[in-house]
Write a structure and sequence with these properties.
Immunoglobulin-like; L,D-transpeptidase catalytic domain-like; 5-stranded mixed β-sheet; 4-stranded antiparallel β-sheet; 5 helices; 36% strand
Length: 418
């Protein structure tokens, strides 16, 4: 080998060894990066990265529901919490910028909106928090609440804070058909201060009534709890209600109409307080029999026969009275107990002449407190029981009004889904 070739070989070997040494030096034997000059100084990029890490807040903000969620609850979904820090500011708005009121908790660890959200609405939440060193963290999210098409509500009676008669059931009417009845019924509880057992009964897929075996105990307090938020009532349809309702049960008043004797006996807490002459349905238009509950009261109302099937040859109603006094509804189909000023006074107590209602003597204008119609109206409340007998007609259907008392307890409990 010539000297020149030998020198070239040594240079190549030296370069190869040098390359290996350089590659080894990038990681170092102790796992730490060393500077190009071997002096142990950090690169400028490492210094930037470390400085940025020192400026990052340790506060960890969590927004619920998750960003991009849909079908979110309008009651409990929205919330902001923080770990390793305290919340300093939270804003919630609809997509069009309308602000939603809310409040940070006393310990500054959480935030919730002040009220119920709207259905089918896009909301945005922006949150800020500081860690113990005062460094600020930010978090943002948006979500959509459950749509009306994908949710259901139950319209209920009686109203919160009302006082009702002993026959008043709790009746919940749903705005969509319920197929998962057991789950929905489990989300509805009714309790009484009297300790009476309360059981629900389904009338079809959209109505659930709840009552005790016997009439409510007079003077008791009844509590209805709707815990339906997120409960699946049908495929893809969820509840949105979370509500507690209480109502009072008044004195025990039960009135018995006897179409044969043409009288009504009013008892209160087991004692007869009044006997009133009446006129029930005529032999051609008999009054339903059974236990009925007053569901509505009107000082005056219009009664048009065409709306309940009584039409003449001209297509108009057989009657159309625009100022019926002291009317109280007993059925959805149009059975009322009401004042009557157009009939002869002699019919009350002696003849059944109506189209199916129970009539009491009254005066036009509903302003005479001395009439039987006025007395009964002023001494009755929604939920009072009116029992009608000896009419010769069939017993009213339990779902025609609030009249589930016409089912015995075994029939009633058989209609429960739980």
């Amino acid at each position: 080998m010539t000297d020149s070739k030998r020198r070239k070989g040594l240079m190549a070997a030296s370069a190869l060894v040098g390359g290996v040494l350089v590659l080894s030096a990038c990681s170092g034997s102790d796992g730490k990066a060393s500077g190009a000059e071997g002096g142990g100084k950090k690169s400028s990029q490492a210094q930037v990265d470390e400085a940025a890490a020192q400026k990052t807040s340790e506060a960890l903000i969590k927004i619920a529901p998750k960003d991009g969620s849909d079908n979110a609850s309008i009651n409990n979904a929205a919330a902001v919490t923080v770990r390793k820090g305290t919340l300093t500011n939270v804003t919630m708005t609809t997509v069009d910028g309308t602000a939603v009121q809310g409040q940070i908790s006393a310990d500054k660890k959480s935030w919730k909106p002040a009220g119920q959200l709207q259905r089918a609405t896009v909301y945005k939440i922006a949150a800020e928090a500081n860690d113990s060193s005062g460094r600020t963290a930010h978090e943002n999210a948006s979500f959509t609440t459950v749509s009306q098409a994908n949710s259901f509500i139950g319209n209920f009676t009686p109203e919160d804070g009302s006082t009702v008669g002993v026959g008043m059931p709790v009746s919940v009417n749903f705005d969509k058909a319920i197929t998962n009845k057991a789950a929905v019924q489990k989300g509805i509880t009714v309790t009484s201060s009297s300790g009476q057992q309360v059981v629900g009964h389904w009338f079809g897929n959209q109505r659930l009534d709840l009552r005790p075996k016997d009439y409510w105990t007079g003077g008791s307090t009844v509590t209805l709890k709707l815990d339906l938020d997120g409960v699946q009532g049908a495929n893809g349809v969820y509840g949105v209600q979370q509500k507690t309702v209480t109502f009072k049960v008044g004195r025990n008043q039960v009135s018995t109409v006897d179409a044969q004797t043409k009288t009504m006996t009013v008892t209160r807490d087991g004692k007869v307080v009044k006997t009133i002459p009446i006129s029930a349905g005529s032999p051609e238009n008999k009054t339903y029999q059974g236990q009925m509950v007053i569901s509505e009261k009107f000082k005056e109302t219009r009664m048009d026969g065409s709306t309940v099937g009584f039409k003449g040859n001209d297509g108009k109603g057989e009657y159309d009275i625009k100022d019926v006094p002291h009317a109280m509804r007993l059925s959805t189909s149009g059975t009322f107990i009401h004042g009557n000023y157009w009939g002869a006074k002699s019919i009350f107590g002696s003849a059944n002449t109506s189209h199916g209602c129970v009539g009491l003597s009254d005066t036009k204008g509903a302003n005479d407190p001395k009439t039987p119609g006025s007395w009964f109206y002023n001494n009755s409340i929604v939920g009072d029981v009116v029992i009608v007998k000896n009419t010769g007609d069939k017993t009213i259907q339990p779902d025609n009004g609030l009249n589930g008392w016409n089912m015995d307890w075994a029939q009633w409990t058989a209609g429960s889904a739980v």
